[in-house]
Amino acid sequence: MPSANTADFEDGPVELTDKRKDALNTALDGLGKQKQTAQVLKPYTKFARWWTRSEDLFINWYSVLDRGLAWMSRSFGELSQSQFQAKYEADLAIYKDMVHGVTCFEQDLSYFEDPENVERKDDLAKAMIAASAAARSEDISSLSKAILVYVEEADSGTKLLPAISARVKKCESHGFKHPILGRLLCPIKYLDNLNENPAEYLKKLDNGNVKVRSRDMPSFLWPKDGYDCEQMEENMFRNPILVMVWKHIFTCPSSALKDGPGRTKTRSSQAKMNKMSSVTPGSIAYACLMLRHSISDIEDWRTEDKLFKREEFYEFIMALFDDGDDEESDWVKDTIEWWNAQVFGSEPKSVDDSDNELGPSTLAIIKKQRDQRRAQEARKAKAQTSVTSIADRATPARDPHPAPRAHSPPRSPGPRQSPRRSSHTSGNNR
C-alpha cells in the first residue's frame, strides 16, 4: 500500500461557499437514509460503496477520517510526524486515495477542519459506513436467487437436487443441509472425509461436531476436481461459480452467465463507473464472502456462522495476496492476470494450528509450501556453487612454460558452419 506524503495533500485551499456549508450541515444533521441520499454527500457515499467492494470490506471510516484530518492539521499528539505516519500508514494511504477520489473533498476540507465542526467528521463517517452496508446488502439480496443458477451453471447446467423452493427459509435449505451447497462450503482439507460418507459427514459439519473455522478454506475456492494437496495454490480462486459472482457484482448480473469476458452495453456497471481496469485482491475476497454467505444457511449478515468469522476469513484471503517476502510472487501475478482474462478479456502474461483436530489450516499449508519452494531453490543455488568450486579445484594448473607443440600439416578447409540462431517466441502458450 503506498505511503502517505505531506505533498500528496497540498494542492492549495479551495473556497467553500456558504451555500455548500448549509447543505453539508443539513445533510449531516439528517438520519439514516437521509445522510446516504443527500446530494451533497453523494461523492463520499459513492466512494465508500466502491472501496468496500473493491478494496476493503471491513474498513473503519472513523479511523480513516480521524487520522487523515489529524495529518492535515499536523495534530500528531505525542508522536513525531514520522512516528504518526509509520503507525497509521494504512489509514493515511486510504485517506490519500479519498482526497483524490472524492472530487469535492478538497473543497470541503476547511469545513471539516473548522473547530466548530469537530464532530462533523464522525457524522461523515456514519454516512460512509451506512453506504458501505447498503452496498453489501444490495449485493446479498441480488445474489439470493441468482447464486443457485450459478451453482447449476458451473455443473454443466445440471439441476440443483434436491431443488430449493423459494418458500423454504434459507436456514432450512442452504448450507450443510444441502448436499451440493454443503460440498462447496466444506473445508477443502475435509473433502476426502466427506466423499467417504457424504450424508453422515454433512450432518457432522452442520451440527458442529466437525469444526469449521475461518482459516480453513472452503472447497468453492477451487474448481471441481481442480485441487492438488501438494500444490494448494494451483487453481485456487478459479472456481467458475466465484467468477460468476464477481461478474454479477462488478460487471452486472447479465454478464455473469456469458462464457467470455463481461463486456456489457450498460453504462452502470460498477467496473465501468469506477474505471476499473484490473481485478483487485479485495474484489476477489469480497466475491468470496458474498458467495459463502449466499450458499450458507445464515439469514442475517450480522450473525456469525458458529466458529467461522467472516472478517478473519477475509483477512486470510488478503494475506495470500500479500505474504510479505512473497507479495510479488508469480502466483499473485498469474492469479490476477487469469482473472483479468476472465472478466475483462485481458491476455494473461507468462509469468499455528495445533487445536485443529484434522491438521493445519489451508493458509498454514500454503505458507509452508511457499517456504519449502524457497528452501529448495536455495539448496539448488548452494549445490551449483559447490559443483563450480570443486570443478575449479580439479582443473590442473597451467604450466607457465609449456613445451613447444609440434606443427601438424595444414588440413584442407571444410564447409563453413553458420552460427546457431536462437529463436525467441513471444506470448503465452499457457
Automatic annotation (TrEMBL):
Listed InterPro entries: DUF6698 (IPR046521)
Biased segments, Basic and acidic residues type: 368-380
Region (Disordered) location: 368-430
Name by which UniProt lists this protein: Uncharacterized protein
